[in-house]
# Entry
Amino acid sequence: MSLSREQFLRQFTRQALDERISLFMGAGGSRDAGYPNWADLFAPFADELGTTINESTDYYRLAQYYSNKFGQAELRKRINEAINRNNFKSPLIDELIDVGFTNVWTTNFDNVMELNYQKRNILINKVFRDSDLSNIDINRRMNIFKMNGDVTNLEGIVATQSDYERYTDTHRMMLMFFKRELISSTFLFIGYSFTDYLVLDCLSEITRYLGDTAAYHYAIMKNERKNPYFEHFIEDIEKRYHIRVLLVDDHKDIPVVLAELNERIRKKRVFVSGAFNSSETEIEEYSHQLSRNLTSHLLDSDYRVVNGIGRRFGTHLIGYANEHLAKKGVKDIEKYLIVKPFVGLGKKSQIEKKRLREEVISKCGAAIFVFGDVDGNSVYGKSGVLEEFEIASKQRKTIIPITYPGMMSAVIWEKVKRNLTRYHYLEGKIDFLSSIEPSDELSRLIIHILNSVKDS
# Structure
């Protein structure tokens, strides 16, 4: 039985926040950037062989027949002519990259994913031979695993039936690595029809050995209402291969679903902005109290805390967040506490810091502002808290200011209150967003505001 849209969004958001997700990109995904899917790619070959393409066509076998008749070199030449392009603009792929997958797997020969990551200055490793596995860097680069080979190495692509039959010998380590990731990660399949057995055989093997304990994966597919077997097919891949499917009416709906998924992921990340130079006991004590209460409430409510290590306050916030997570027995603290320092002096560093702030805040749904020195000139230049407020406002984030006497957050609080129609979620609450309120009650109110925006 297929998933509802709400079920998919809720379940996959949870997986994405746990950072245990991988993307499997089929030919239908590359089609959004102007590349042919398998049917379009092989239709001319079928025509030359005097046959046609339908839903039961075995493309490996069709390619084998073409290779037998016209030669392997001609087959690879024709494939190269069809897919060796520099197209990469794709709303679908933009949304996929925003999701934040750990790794990308694909059976496509084209370079569309690589081009899109490179456009964003994201370093990649391309893996299409067993020997490439020695170069993978799980933590520092995006790994793109190309199971059927790459257009830059036409002699090594897996296109024909004989190529497929030798796969377990030519790509033994690739298959082992893929199976490991199917066990340890949650996959989202996009543009993949589940009609060839390269992936299904791996899934089948895992479910046979692990049974009901095998991980479930997800797919978004176009509903084939005129196909009398389609409903049974969806039921089959869920029961036998542990693939839960969200059906959409049109391929154009997939980027819309992914955009909503990204928005839900962002809403669970909260950027906390704050800094101060003063060493006075009163502000120091309040910073400790607020940091302890705010981080515990955010983390216990399943929000992720994002911070740029603002002077004094940032250290308090990160320290108490680490303490809270450690007491909970959380080992992978970086999944819940995301620290992105903005450091440097001079004009060039200010430009770079602003760029980093824009990037970090863009991945969050809300921003909380507290403290911030009003006199932000001389050594430190413009107030970082003010700049972060301006960025968050421009990006239309949920803004939550906490007024503190004589600090930048009080200035921000006044600006927000004067334009409360823009910040409608603060109506009836803005006057309680103050350091006068007990920090525990203030933190509870902030969670209430975040939840109301998230659920709206």
Remarks:
- The radius of gyration is 26 Å.
- The CA atoms of residues 296 and 324 lie 6 Å apart.
